[in-house]
Amino acid sequence: MSRPSRLQRQILSLYRELLRAGRGKPGAEARVRAEFRQHASLPRSDVLRIEYLYRRGRRQLQLLRSGHATAMGAFVRSRGPTEEPGGGAAPGTPLDDCDSPGNPHNGMGTPETRLGGR
């Protein structure tokens, strides 16, 4: 096996630093491991994506090291038992109600202007 490249060494170093930074924060270690495991199958030739993920990881490391981060998680939208995987509304119901008072758009999809120009 050949020596690891500079980029490989940087990524391994980032992985170790992220694990150390997230040691005291709930969910951080598991999230770091999951993120690295998810992207482990990237082809070596996809250098642009690897470098992008490396920069993103560096930014996350800075956030973890700052005193403001207390935990780490991910936003995941869970589906209900009756919700379909493809969409939001139930069959036969409109996706958005254009005539509702809270909607700032008229039925044509353009913003409506109120009286007085405000």
TrEMBL record:
Subcellular location: Mitochondrion matrix
Annotated Gene Ontology cellular component terms: mitochondrial matrix; nucleoplasm
Key words of the record: Chaperone, Mitochondrion
Domain Complex 1 LYR protein stretches: 9-62
GO biological process: one example: mitochondrial respiratory chain complex II assembly
InterPro entries: Complex1_LYR_dom, Complex1_LYR_SDHAF1_LYRM8, SDHAF1
Main localization category: mitochondrion
Disordered as annotated region, ranges: 76-118
Keyword Mitochondrion: yes
Family of the protein in this entry: Belongs to the complex I LYR family. SDHAF1 subfamily.
Name recorded for this polypeptide: Succinate dehydrogenase complex assembly factor 1
